Amino acid sequence: MMGLNLLRSGLRRLNLGLLSVAKYLSLTLVAVMTLVILLQVVCRYVFNDALAWTEEAGRYMMVWMTFIALPIVCYKGQHAALDFFSHLLWRRTRYLLEIVLYALIMVVLFFALEKSWLFASKGARIFATSLPITKYWVYLSMPIGFGLSMLVYVELILDAITGLLPERRQAQLQAQPGQALWKQL
């Protein structure tokens, strides 16, 4: 069990670091996107001369923000879920159900990662309409978001496996300094 604890704590530190970067990148993207769209509105309705690149740039920032925020939502458990009966289950049954569900999510994320990487690679030959970049840089947000989400679900599976342990052994493994760090971020 010492190996499980080491793996969990190492993965938790990695995830917290990556998710912290993702959080601030998402916040920055929202702020810049808001400014770009505001610039578009001012130029269009005040100066009667719309900028060609602002609508496309705002759309691409929205795509990046969505996929970068995905693992954060998964980590905090804030995604849409039907959990109206899970509190009725026994503790061990609930953890077994979590392991099965997280494993299924991992399978879906694996296929999404594979397909999105191929999609992004094909975008390397397609240029954006009004920006001097290829679509690869836009589509790259998908495999990054799916990959980070997979790391999160590996950690959640390890946490659920720990939940299957007897209560006294579980209490020894529950020292999670990373959770306090995450709440500070």
Automatic annotation (TrEMBL):
Annotated signal sequence is: none
Can you give the residue ranges of the Tripartite ATP-independent periplasmic transporters DctQ component domain? 33-161
Where is this protein localized, as stated in its record? Cell inner membrane
Subunit arrangement? Answer: The complex comprises the extracytoplasmic solute receptor protein and the two transmembrane proteins.
Single GO molecular-function term? transmembrane transporter activity
- Please report the name of this protein according to its UniProt entry: TRAP transporter small permease protein
Alphabetical GO CC annotations of the entry are: plasma membrane
| Upper taxonomic lineage | Bacteria, Pseudomonadati, Pseudomonadota
Function field: Part of the tripartite ATP-independent periplasmic (TRAP) transport system.
Q: Does the keyword ATP-binding apply?
A: no
